[in-house]
Design brief:
Number of helices of chain A: 12
CATH architecture of the largest domain in chain A: 7 Propeller
Protein name (chain B): WD repeat-containing protein 75
CATH topology of one domain in chain B: Methylamine Dehydrogenase, Chain H
Helix content of chain B: 10-25%
Oligomer: heterodimer
Number of helices of chain B: 7
Structural class of chain A: alpha+beta
CATH superfamily of one domain in chain B: YVTN repeat-like/Quinoprotein amine dehydrogenase
CATH superfamily of the largest domain in chain A: YVTN repeat-like/Quinoprotein amine dehydrogenase
Helix content of chain A: 25-40%
Largest interface: A-B, 40 and 46 residues
Strand order of the largest sheet of chain A: 1-28-27-26
GO biological process, one term (chain B): rRNA processing
Strand content of chain A: 25-35%
Number of domains of chain A: 2
Main location (chain B): nucleus
Largest sheet of chain A: 4 strands, antiparallel
Keywords (chain B): Nucleus, Repeat, Ribosome biogenesis, rRNA processing, Transcription, WD repeat
Pfam families (chain B): Beta-prop_WDR75_1st, Beta-prop_WDR75_2nd
Structural class of chain B: mainly beta
C-alpha cells in the first residue's frame, strides 16, 4: 500500500539576489550605531593593537572611539583648521594627522597636546602615515609634494616633487621601511623608495586617485579613483590586473576584510560593495543613507565603520554567535516540548539492537482533508487567513490540486457571504500574479459561473466583484502596453543585428526572434 | 529477397498476468495465473515465476484447481481445449478437446468428473450467445481425449468468469448477465431468474458486474455498475426472495469474494481500495486504500490467511488477512499506448517505458521482471474514470545513464496544456534517480520530441526539446552553484525557430557537434557549439517523420523518412541527397553500437523489416510480414555477451537484439538458431528442487546440495539436506553442555565454515559422481512404484526426476562439464563467505 502523496507546493524561484554564504556572512551584523560628528568624516583608522580603538577624523577634530563605546574615549582638538588623515602607528601609541593649515601634528594617544609639529608643506596635508619602522612619517599635500619626516628630531628627510596635482592618498609598505606609494589627482600612482630621489614605478589609473590599498603580501595594489577600482600587480612592474566598475559615482574608500579574502569599496553613490578577491566579483552590497567618504573594517570583520558626508558615523557590530543563533532558532520551548522529545535524543549504545518503527507521515491540514476527499474543507483550510496572506502559493497549490481532481467546482460551490468574500479577496490579491494567473483565472471563471444567479443579493460580494472587474481592466491595459513595448524592442533587435549572407532568407529574423523570446519568456526554474 | 529461415520472431516476456483471476493452490504456496498462451505458476513466498505451463495454442481463458486432486489444475483456452496439468512439476497430463472456443471454466467438488465451461455451441459462433455447458470428462488413458458428452446447463450467460459462481459446495450455480440473476439448483434441476429494474435516470447503472456466493449460507452477493453490492437471500423461491443493498464504491464493483469461513466479504473496484465487509454486520467495514491501480479480481487462499488482488496495471498483490500488503507480483505494465518511446537504461540495461499512470517502469529483459517504477509525477493518483491526469509522455536518457529527462503532460478540455520537464540525476548511493530540476511550462505547446546529446567526450550534457509552439530549446546544466548546499541545475541555453514552422523530430550526430531538427518538410542542421544554422535539407512535399544520424563509419549520413513513402539519405559532407528509396517507413531506428539501421515498413496491412547500412546499397537482412499491423515502437538492446554467428544475414543480431511492440502491445524480438540452441542448453542445466521456490539465492544453494549429497534428492517428501554431521565443529556444538559453550557470535563463523565444503578435494568429486548415478537409478524405481497408486496415465512421466530423464538425456561429457562449472561457482561463493 503506497502512502498518500501530499499536495505538491510549487517552489517558485526567488527573485532578486541569491542567498549565498557571503550574503549570510555580511548580513550577520547588528543594527548600526549612529553617531553625529561635526562635519564630514574624511578618515577612519583602526588601531592595530587590541582593543582596536578607531580614530575618526572629522572637521577639526580627531576622535578615538573604543570598540563598543558610543562616546569618544579621547578627542584631539588642537587643530587650527580641518584635520585630515588621523592614523595610528603600528604599536598603537602614536597618532599622526594632517591639517588644512599645512602643519602635520603627532600625538601621543594618551596625551592631549601635540608631541611634534612638522612644518614645511605649503598647502593642506591630506595624507599622513608612519613608515614600517615607526620612526618616520610620510605626508602628502595639496602643494603636489610628498615628504618624509624624522620623528625624533622633527626634521624633513626628503621631498618628492613628481606629482603634478594634489596628492590625496598614500600608503607605506608594512614590510619595507623605505617603500611607499602615493596617489594623486594627476591620475597617477607613484611608488617611491626613500633611498632614491625619484619614483621607482608609475602607474596610470586614468582618473583622479582617491584611495590606495596594499595587500598584506604587498604584491598587489588596489587603487580607487573615479568610478573604477583597479588592481595592480607590483611584482610585474605595475601591470594592471583587474579593473572593476561597480559603482556609479566616485569610489572614495577601500578596505580589506576577512584576512584579505574580501575587498570592500565605498563610494559617493552611498553603497559599500564587497568583492571576492579571487575572482573580483561583487558578492555583497551595503546601502547607506548618505555619500560615503571613509570606511573602516575592524580586524576579523568585527565591525564595519562608515563615515558619511553628512557627518554621521555608522558603526555596525558583528552579531555574537549566540545572538545569531537566537534569531534563526525557534522560540522558547513550552513545557510540553519535553514530553515530545522524551527519548528522542537517546543515542543507542554499541550492542543495542535498534527496532525500527514505521515513521508516521505528517500531513498538512489541507492534505488531511484531501486524503479524505473533503474538498470544501480542504479549500477552507487552505484559505485560512495566515496561509492566504503569507503563503499564497500553498492556497494556489491546493486549488490546483482540486482542479486536477475535477472537484474544484464542488469545493467552490455552496459558500456563504463571508467565505465568498474571503475567496474573492484572495483572487483580487493574486489574480494578476503571473505565477498564479493560470490557476486563478479558471477559478474566477468558475466562481462567476456558480454564483451568477445570486449576484446583486449581497452588497459585500458585489463590491468585491466590481473590484475584480476593475483589476482585470487595468491588467488588460497593462498587457497592451507591454505588447507595444515588445514590438518596439523587436524592431530594435531586428535593426541592430547585422545582416549577413546566409543561404536561406529569414534566418536572421528567426534568430533575433528566438533570442528575444528567450529573454522574455525564460521558463521558471525551480530548485528542488 | 531471401527468407531467412534461421531468424524467427518470438514473443519475449512482459505478458499479462491479470487477465483472469489468480488461482491459489490449497497449501497457499503457488499462484496460477493465465498469461497469454500459457499458465504461469508463481511462488507466493518469493514472488518468482516457478513454471510456465505451455501447451495451449490460443489465449488461456481460465484456470481452476481440480476439485478431486489439489495437485492438478484444469486450464481452458480459446483454442477449444481443456488441459489437465500437474502444476508442481509443470507437466501436461491430459488434453480434452471440446471443439468450441471456451471463455471460462468452473468446477465444484460435488460434481466429480464434470467441468462446466462457457462456450458458444452454435454453429455460426455468435459470440454474444454463450452457454454454460457441463462437460463429462471421459476416463480414458489417452493423453488427447475428445470430450463429447456435453450438456447445456444455462443458456445466455456472460463471458466474464466472475459472473458465474458455484454456491454452497456446488448445490447451486449463480450466473448474472445484464440485469438478470439466474440461479440453477442442481438438486431441483430448476433455474430461477431475478430481474432488476433498469435505472432510467442514469442509464443502465443497475447492471450486474460480478457475483459471489457465501460458502456456508444461502446468500448471493452481486456487484453492480453503480457501485452497489446486493446480498440476495431466499432465492430458492421464485416469489419470496429478498435482497439488501450495501453501498460504498463510487463506481462499478469489479470483483467480490467471500472468505472461506464466510465471515467477511471482500470487494474492490476502480478506486483501488480493498473493502472488507463483515458478514451480517455490514456497517463494519475495513479498508485497504491506495493499492496502486484498479482492482480487477480478488481471491482468497483456501485457509483464508492470504488475499490476492489482481490489478489493472498487471500486478498481483498478496495481502495478509489483517489487511497488510505482504508482497506484489508485478508484470510489465502496458497501458493503452506507449507514449514514451522504448528506451534502454544504459546502467541497468533494462527496458524503460511509461507504465503505471505517472510512472516510468524499468523492466529487465533478461530476467523478464519489472525492476522498479520511478514515480515521475509525484502526485496522488485519483482513481476515477474520465479524469485527465498527468501522464509521462516523453523520456530520454543520456549516454552514461546519469541523467534522465521526463516530460509530463496534462491536457484538459478547454484549458492550456500543462507541461513539466523534469531532469533526474542518478544517485549512486540510493541507486535510483533523484529529481534535480523541474521546469514548469518549458514550452507553450505539446512537446513533440526530445533527445540528449549522446557524445561521451563532452563535459556538459545537453538536452534538446522540440515543441508544437514552433520552437526548439536546448537545455544545459549550469556548472556553477551559488552556495555549497545548492546543486547545479538545468537552464535554457538556446531557443531556435525556423520560418515559424513546427519542429517534429530532433537528432544529435554521433559526436554531438551537429543537431538536426526537422521542420515539417525541411531538415535544418545546426552547430551545437555556436547555434548557427549550418544548412537546410529538404525533400518536399511531405513532412519528415523520422530522423536519424548514421553511426561510426556512416556518421556522415543523415537519414530521414517522409510522409510520402520516401526513405532519404543525405550526405552531410556534400549536403546533397545520396540516395532515396520509396517505402512506407513507419519507424526508423539506429543501432547504438553498430552502423546498422532498422526500418519497419508498412505494406498491405503487415509490417516488413529491413536492416541496412546507410553506406551499402543492399540490405543486410529483410523479412516480410514480421507481424500484422503497424510497428511504431522498437529498440535495439545491446547483448550482454556477443553471439558468434558467421552467417551474413544474422550477423546484425550478434551484438544487439531488436525488440519491438506490435499493435496489440506484444513485446516481440528476433532470435537466431544459435541463440535458441544456447537457451535450450541452459534450460537443461536448470534443475530445480521444487519444494523450495526458485530464487537466485536458492540457485546458489541448490548447486551445493545437488553436488555434495546426491542422495539428498531421494523421494518426494524431501527433508532438509543432511548436514555434514561428521563435522567436528557441529559435534562439539551439539554435545557440549550449553553453559560451557562460548558465545554464539564466536561459534557462528565456525559453524558456517563447517557447513561449507572445502574446495580442494579432488577425490570427493569422483565419489559424488558415482553416488549420484546410483541414486538416480534408485529414484526412478521408487517413483514407478508410487505411480501405480494414482490414476495417472503411464505415459505421463511423474515427478521431477522422471521428467528429467524424459527430457533429452545429458551425455556423460556434458554431465562432467556441468559439474566442473558448478565446482567453479561454488568455490567463489565459499570464498565470499569465508572472507
Amino acid at each position: 500500500m503506497a502512502s498518500f502523496k501530499p499536495t505538491k507546493i510549487q517552489v517558485y524561484p526567488k527573485l532578486g539576489e541569491k542567498v549565498t554564504q557571503d550574503t549570510l556572512y555580511w548580513k550577520n551584523y547588528k543594527a548600526p550605531v549612529q553617531i553625529k560628528e561635526f562635519g564630514a568624516i574624511t578618515n577612519i583608522d583602526f588601531s592595530p593593537v587590541a582593543p582596536h580603538n578607531f580614530a575618526v577624523t572629522a572637521f577639526t577634530r580627531v576622535h578615538i572611539y573604543g570598540p563598543f563605546s558610543q562616546e569618544p574615549v579621547k578627542t584631539f582638538t588642537r587643530f587650527k583648521d580641518t584635520a585630515y588623515s588621523g592614523r595610528f602607528r603600528s604599536d598603537g601609541q602614536l597618532l599622526v594627522a594632517g591639517c588644512e593649515d599645512s602643519v602635520v601634528r603627532l600625538f601621543d594617544v594618551s596625551g592631549k597636546v601635540a608631541l611634534r609639529m612638522f612644518k614645511g608643506h605649503t598647502k593642506a596635508v591630506h595624507v599622513t602615515d608612519f613608515t614600517s619602522d615607526g620612526y618616520q612619517i610620510l605626508t602628502g599635500s595639496d602643494d603636489y609634494t610628498c615628504r618624509l619626516w624624522d620623528i625624533p628630531n622633527a626634521t624633513e628627510l626628503n621631498t618628492y616633487q613628481e606629482h603634478t596635482d594634489y596628492i590625496r592618498c598614500g600608503v607605506t609598505s608594512k614590510l619595507n621601511r623605505d617603500l611607499f606609494i602615493t596617489g594623486s589627482y594627476d591620475h597617477t600612482l607613484k611608488m617611491f623608495d626613500a633611498r632614491l630621489d625619484k619614483s621607482v614605478m608609475t602607474m596610470d589609473h586614468g582618473h583622479p586617485v582617491e584611495n590606495l590599498l596594499l595587500y598584506p603580501s604587498e604584491g598587489l595594489l588596489v587603487s580607487a579613483g573615479g568610478r573604477y577600482v583597479k588592481v595592480w600587480d607590483l611584482l610585474k612592474g605595475g601591470q594592471p590586473l583587474v579593473s572593476m566598475k561597480n559603482h556609479h559615482k566616485t569610489v572614495t574608500c577601500l578596505s580589506l576584510g576577512s584576512n584579505g579574502q574580501r575587498l570592500l569599496s565605498a563610494s559617493l553613490d552611498r553603497h559599500v560593495k564587497v568583492y571576492n578577491t579571487t575572482n573580483y566579483k561583487v558578492v555583497h552590497n551595503f546601502d547607506y543613507a548618505a555619500s560615503i567618504l571613509s570606511l573602516g573594517l575592524a580586524p576579523d570583520d568585527e565591525s564595519i565603520v562608515v563615515g558619511m558626508t553628512n557627518g554621521i558615523l555608522s558603526v555596525k557590530h558583528r552579531k555574537s554567535p549566540e545572538e545569531s543563533k537566537e534569531t534563526s532558532g525557534q522560540q522558547r520551548r513550552k513545557p510540553s516540548y519535553r514530553v515530545f522529545v522524551k527519548g528522542k535524543n537517546y543515542v543507542p549504545k554499541q550492542d543495542d539492537y535498534l527496532v525500527s518503527k514505521p515513521v508516521k507521515q505528517h500531513l498538512a491540514k489541507y492534505d488531511k482533508q484531501l486524503k479524505r476527499f473533503n474538498v470544501s474543507k480542504a479549500l477552507d483550510t487552505a484559505l485560512e487567513t495566515w496561509l492566504r496572506r503569507r503563503k499564497p502559493e500553498i492556497t494556489v497549490a491546493v486549488i490546483k490540486e482540486l482542479d486536477r481532481r475535477g472537484t474544484l467546482k464542488n469545493a467552490l460551490a455552496g459558500r456563504d457571504e463571508q467565505s465568498l468574500f474571503h475567496l474573492l479577496n484572495f483572487l483580487i490579491g493574486n489574480l494578476v500574479d503571473p505565477r498564479f494567473a493560470p490557476v486563478l483565472v479558471t477559478t474566477a471563471e468558475m466562481i462567476l459561473d456558480i454564483y451568477r444567479s445570486v449576484i446583486g443579493q449581497s452588497p459585500v460580494v458585489d463590491r468585491q466583484l466590481l473590484r475584480l472587474q476593475d483589476l482585470l481592466e487595468r491588467e488588460i491595459d497593462y498587457q497592451k502596453d507591454l505588447l507595444e513595448v515588445l514590438g518596439m524592442l523587436d524592431t530594435m533587435f531586428a535593426s541592430s543585428i547585422p545582416r549577413k549572407e546566409v543561404p536561406c532568407s529569414g534566418i536572421s529574423r528567426s534568430n533575433g526572434l528566438g533570442q528575444g523570446e528567450a529573454s522574455t519568456s525564460r521558463p521558471q526554474l525551480q530548485a528542488t | 529477397m531471401v527468407e531467412h529461415g534461421d531468424i524467427r520472431v518470438v514473443h519475449r516476456g512482459g505478458s499479462k498476468i491479470n487477465f483472469r483471476e489468480p488461482v491459489i493452490t490449497n497449501d497457499s504456496k503457488f499462484l496460477l495465473c493465465a498469461s497469454g498462451e500459457c499458465v504461469k505458476v508463481f511462488s507466493t513466498s518469493t514472488e518468482e515465476c516457478v513454471h510456465d505451463l505451455r501447451g495451449h495454442t490460443d489465449l488461456v481463458t481460465g484456470v481452476i484447481i481440480k476439485p478431486s486432486n489439489h495437485l492438478q489444475a484444469y486450464s481452458c483456452s480459446a483454442d477449444g481445449t481443456v488441459r489437465l496439468w500437474d502444476f508442481t512439476d509443470g507437466i501436461l497430463i491430459k488434453t480434452y478437446v471440446i471443439g468450441h472456443p471456451i471463455y471460462s471454466i468452473h468446477a465444484s467438488a460435488s460434481h466429480e468428473g464434470v467441468v462446466f465451461v462457457v462456450t458458444s455451441m452454435h454453429a455460426d459462433k455468435r459470440p454474444d450467445l454463450l452457454q454454460l455447458v457441463a462437460v463429462h470428462l471421459p476416463r480414458s488413458g489417452d493423453q488427447m481425449v475428445e470430450a463429447r458428452e456435453l450438456s447445456a446447463v444455462l443458456s445466455d450467460v456472460s463471458s466474464n468468469p466472475l459472473a458465474i459462481v458455484f454456491g454452497r459446495g456446488g448445490e447451486y450455480i449463480a450466473s448474472t448477465k445484464g440485469l438478470k440473476l439466474e440461479v440453477y439448483l442442481f438438486r431441483k434441476q430448476k433455474a430461477y431468474s431475478f430481474f432488476l429494474k433498469e435505472d432510467n435516470k442514469k442509464g443502465r447503472r443497475n447492471t450486474f458486474t460480478c457475483v459471489a456466493c457465501h460458502p456456508k449460507d444461502d446468500c448471493i452477493a452481486t456487484g453492480h455498475e453503480d457501485g452497489k453490492i446486493r446480498l440476495w437471500r431466499n432465492f430458492n423461491q421464485k416469489k419470496e426472495y429478498t435482497y439488501s443493498t450495501l453501498h460504498w464504491h463510487h463506481s462499478a464493483v469489479s470483483s467480490l469474494c467471500f472468505t472461506p469461513e464466510g465471515t467477511n466479504l471482500l470487494s474492490g473496484g476502480i478506486e483501488s481500495v480493498l473493502v472488507q465487509w463483515r458478514y451480517n454486520q455490514e456497517d463494519q467495514r475495513e479498508f485497504l486504500p491506495r493499492l496502486g491501480a484498479a482492482i480487477t479480481h480478488i481471491t482468497v487462499s483456501p485457509d483464508g490467511s492470504l488475499f490476492f488482488t489482481s490489478h489493472s496495471d498487471n500486478k498481483i498483490t498478496i495481502i495478509q488477512s489483517c489487511l497488510k500488503v505482504s508482497a506484489a507480483i508485478q508484470g510489465l505494465v502496458k497501458g493503452e499506448s506507449v507514449t514514451t518511446d522504448l528506451m534502454m537504461d544504459p546502467r541497468s540495461k533494462s527496458l524503460v517505458l511509461n507504465g503505471k499512470p505517472g510512472h516510468l517502469q524499468f523492466y529487465s529483459l533478461q530476467r523478464d521482471k519489472l525492476l522498479y517504477n520511478l514515480d515521475v509525477v509525484q502526485q496522488e493518483y485519483i482513481h476515477e474514470s474520465g479524469l485527465q491526469q498527468f501522464e509521462v509522455v516523453k523520456a530520454a536518457f543520456d549516454a552514461s545513464g546519469n541523467w534522465l529527462a521526463t516530460v509530463e503532460e496534462r491536457k484538459q478540455k478547454g484549458a492550456e496544456v500543462e507541461l513539466n520537464l523534469k531532469l533526474w540525476e542518478f544517485d549512486e548511493q540510493t541507486q535510483s534517480f533523484v529529481l534535480n530540476t523541474t521546469i514548469s511550462a518549458p514550452h507553450e505547446a505539446q512537446i513533440t520530441g526530445m533527445c540528449f546529446c549522446h557524445s561521451t567526450d563532452n563535459q556538459t550534457t545537453m538536452l534538446v526539446s522540440t515543441s508544437k509552439d514552433g520552437h526548439f530549446k536546448a537545455w544545459q546544466l549550469d556548472a556553477q552553484a551559488h552556495t555549497e548546499d545548492e546543486r547545479p541545475s538545468w537552464s535554457c541555453d538556446f531557443v531556435g525557430a525556423y520560418h515559424s514552422l513546427v519542429p517534429e523530430c530532433c537528432c544529435f550526430s554521433a559526436d554531438g557537434s551537429l543537431l538536426a531538427v526537422s521542420f515539417q518538410e525541411v531538415v535544418t542542421v545546426w552547430s551545437t557549439a555556436s547555434w548557427e544554422l549550418l544548412t537546410t535539407l529538404s525533400q518536399p512535399p511531405k513532412a519528415i517523420r523520422n530522423l536519424c544520424f548514421g553511426r561510426l563509419s556512416c556518421s556522415k549520413y543523415l537519414l530521414g523518412t517522409t510522409g510520402n513513402n520516401l526513405l532519404c539519405c543525405w550526405n552531410l559532407l556534400t549536403c546533397s541527397l545520396e540516395w532515396s528509396t520509396s517505402m512506407d517507413v513507419s519507424l526508423l531506428l539506429a543501432d547504438p553500437i553498430s552502423e546498422n539501421m532498422a526500418a519497419f515498413c508498412r505494406q498491405a496491412g503487415s509490417t516488413d523489416l529491413f536492416v541496412f547500412k546507410p553506406s551499402e546499397p543492399r540490405p543486410l537482412f529483410s523479412q516480410k510480414a514480421v507481424c500484422p499491423g503497424k510497428v511504431t515502437r522498437a529498440i535495439f538492446a545491446p547483448r550482454e555477451e556477443m553471439l558468434e554467428s558467421c552467417e551474413e544475414s544474422s550477423q546484425w543480431l550478434n551484438r544487439s537484439q531488436l525488440y519491438f511492440l506490435t499493435q496489440h502491445m506484444d513485446l516481440m524480438t528476433f532470435t537466431t538458431k544459435v541463440e535458441e540452441d544456447r537457451l535450450m542448453a541452459s534450460s537443461k542445466q536448470l534443475v530445480i528442487d521444487d519444494t523450495v521456490a526458485m530464487t537466485p539465492f536458492y540457485l546458489l544453494l541448490g548447486k551445493h546440495r545437488q553436488q555434495d549429497s546426491g542422495d539428498a534428492q531421494s523421494g518426494i517428501s524431501t527433508e532438509r539436506t543432511p548436514l555434514p554431521q561428521g563435522s567436528v565443529a557441529i559435534k562439539e556444538l551439539l554435545q557440549t553442555p550449553a553453559h560451557v559453550l562460548p558465545s554464539t557470535s564466536f561459534l557462528c563463523s565456525m559453524f558456517v565454515q563447517s557447513l561449507l565444503i572445502s574446495v580442494t578435494e579432488p577425490r570427493e568429486e569422483n565419489k559424488a559422481t558415482e553416488e549420484e548415478m546410483e541414486s538416480e537409478k534408485e529414484e526412478e524405481d521408487s517413483e514407478e512404484e508410487m505411480e501405480s497408486g494414482t490414476t495417472r496415465p503411464e505415459q505421463a512421466p511423474l515427478g521431477r526426476h522422471a521428467a528429467e530423464s524424459a527430457a533429452p538425456a545429458l551425455t556423460k561429457a556434458q554431465v562432467r562439464e556441468l559439474r566442473r562449472v558448478k565446482k567453479l561457482d561454488r568455490s567463489w561463493f565459499a570464498g565470499l563467505l569465508d572472507s
